[in-house]
Write a structure and sequence with these properties.
The protein contains ten helices and 21 strands. It has 451 residues and is an alpha/beta fold. Strands 6-5-7-8-4-9-10-11-12 form a nine-stranded mixed β-sheet. It is globular. The N and C termini lie far apart (61 Å). Bound molecules: thymidine-5'-diphosphate and magnesium ion. Magnesium ion binds next to helix 2.
Amino acid sequence: MARGAPSFVCAACGAVHAKWSGRCDACGAWNSIVEDAPRGVTSPARGRRVALAPLAGADPAPPRLPSGGAELDRVLGGGLVPGSAVLVGGDPGIGKSTLLLQAAAAFGAQGAKVIYVSGEEAAAQIRMRAARLGLADAAVLLAAETGLRDVLATLDAETPALTIVDSIQTMWVDAVEGAPGAVAQVRASAHALTDHAKRRGGAVVMVGHVTKDGQIAGPRVIEHMVDTVLYFEGERGHQFRILRAVKNRFGPAGEIGVFEMTGAGLAEVRNPSALFLGDREARTAGAVVFAGVEGTRPLLCEIQALVAPSPLGTPRRAVVGWDSGRLAMILAVLEARAGVGFAGKDVYLNVAGGLRVAEPAADLAVAAALVSALTGTPAPGGAVIFGEIALSGAVRPVAQAEARLKEAAKLGFDRAYAAFKPGSVGETAVALNPVEDLRAFVEDLFGAPEP
Ligand code: TYD
Ligand code: MG
């Protein structure tokens, strides 16, 4: 790309393109590519020599500012690190402002100086929200402001331990072209705030709306700048929300915190497996319990399948909470390796509670739910199922089997059908039924398929 020539960036995924086009070939979004600020011409002046330090040697663990809320602290890796920048992304209306106002109050209650900058709501609106959340007396300072220069001047003078900026898409840098929400604005604002955090040692949390239409630059374009990226997710119409660490320079990625939405704000869920399993009725065909792991946290959930004769030439395959490509693969492996066919049948698959499962470890549970639904035979009661299915029909062991079994035992399950690495599982109260081959597993649970 020529120096000084304009470049283009996808507002949805952050991919950089040399020329404009209607569709981003990196993420497939339409109308999301916008012009980025031209790259500056850099001068070839010589730099100064920087000091080098040996890698070996111990630094003390970074100090942490705990919120006192177990779920939030877990996702942050034990609390906020001073001087760090955190991005909290999520769909509009998912509950980000509520989460962060509650977090602000929690950090304030720990004695930290907290400033909540809102570019979306007036102070009076935020006070009303706080009153609804029972936080009317919280030790939080408010500012309704969108001009970043003024925000930074305020932070310089006040030196808070934590600044929350809701949202980064409303912030405006006067030195940069474009309206608030434009890629260049979002990037410049995030950069200035991150830089301020590093220099002054206060933590900054930025809210970023995820938008699909590309009108507003999504959080993706600033993910690389910040230390920690959290996504707040959940299905509309379901009461629980998951805060997931997708990147964390100061803790494990993949960690989740589980919250329940209530009229008085978000409540922590200490035992999410119980929430996702809900009230399981007597054994029904098509429903099986998957022992999953999210981050370091075991999580049991119910996988439900429905199989019905299809009136359509191309039967339907509908999935909620799992990957549809993966479902197609499991159906193909069942047909080719276990002799169980789904031709002429509509197949519906659902992860109960609105949870989204991404682990391949769910393969075996999905296969069991599908065959159970097809044959009308309930899966064994009191059992959890997990294992990854290979195209050959072999069932492969998955990580953290011990944690999965422990959680199953805790919730009253007494047996497990799964592939185990030899010696990977110690003493357990759950009866183990090792699975190595999909066909043998299907025949064992549901009988031999009709020829
Ligand atoms: P809000 O926090 O404003 O979402 P975001 O900042 O992500 O756009 O929440 C959206 C709506 O949901 C708001 O009207 C408040 C309501 N809500 C509750 O009633 N209880 C809750 O626990 C949460 C999280 C939200
Ligand atoms: Mg909001």
